[in-house]
Amino acid sequence: MSKKKKIEPLTGEELLQKVKELENLSKEEKAKACGYYTVTKNGIERVNMMKFLNALIDAEGIELDSTANANGRGGRSASYRISVQSNGNLLIGSAYTKQMGLKPGDEFEITLGRKHIRLKQLDEDGELDEVEVAS
């Protein structure tokens, strides 16, 4: 059984150039071609999208870390944009739920429109409040 030599993950300008060259590939294929994958003991290749995306962010020189807040802990700020994840999920992060004062167990009714998602939440009076997430 011949072992395929894994390439060292690209970083910086090399990474940006390679991604531009591979513009017609999916993001998973780009990540793999740039060296962001591992091979399991069973020979299955697994793409590490988080490392790939973080390397792209670093290569672009984008600063995502915010300054520490009053209690000494940093965190993400809301960008008001989300993307569908590779597994098809749409994740609304804690920056938004905290801003809205939501807590674990809060429930929503989901209504799909042509180009939007509408979330309806029950308030304390048992009435529906509407929160709309447009695409």
Topology:
Layout: H1 12-21, H2 27-33, E1 37-39, E2 45-47, H3 49-60, H4 94-99, E3 108-112, E4 116-122, E5 128-134
Antiparallel strand pairs: 1-2, 3-4, 4-5
Regions with little confidence, pLDDT below 50 for 5+ residues: 67-73
Shape: elongated
Indicate the mean pLDDT.
78
User: In which range does the helix fraction lie?
Assistant: 25-40%
For the CA atoms, what is the radius of gyration?
20 Å
Identify the strand order in the major beta sheet: 3-4-5
The succession of helices and strands, N to C, reads: HHEEHHEEE
Residue fraction in strands: 15-25%
| Separation of the first and last Cα atoms | 48 Å
Largest sheet features: 3 strands, antiparallel
| Number of helical regions | 4
Say how many strands there are.
5
Structural class: alpha+beta
Oligomer: single chain
What does this structure look like?
- The protein has 135 residues and is α+β, with helices and mostly antiparallel strands.
- α1 packs across α3.
- It is 26% helix and 19% strand.
- The radius of gyration is 20 Å and the shape is elongated.
- β1 and β2 form a beta hairpin.
- The protein contains 4 helices and 5 strands, in the order ααββααβββ.
- Strands 3-4-5 form a 3-stranded antiparallel beta sheet, with no helix packed on it.
- About 5% of the residues have low confidence.
- Among the domains are: 49 residues, no CATH class; 41 residues, no CATH class.
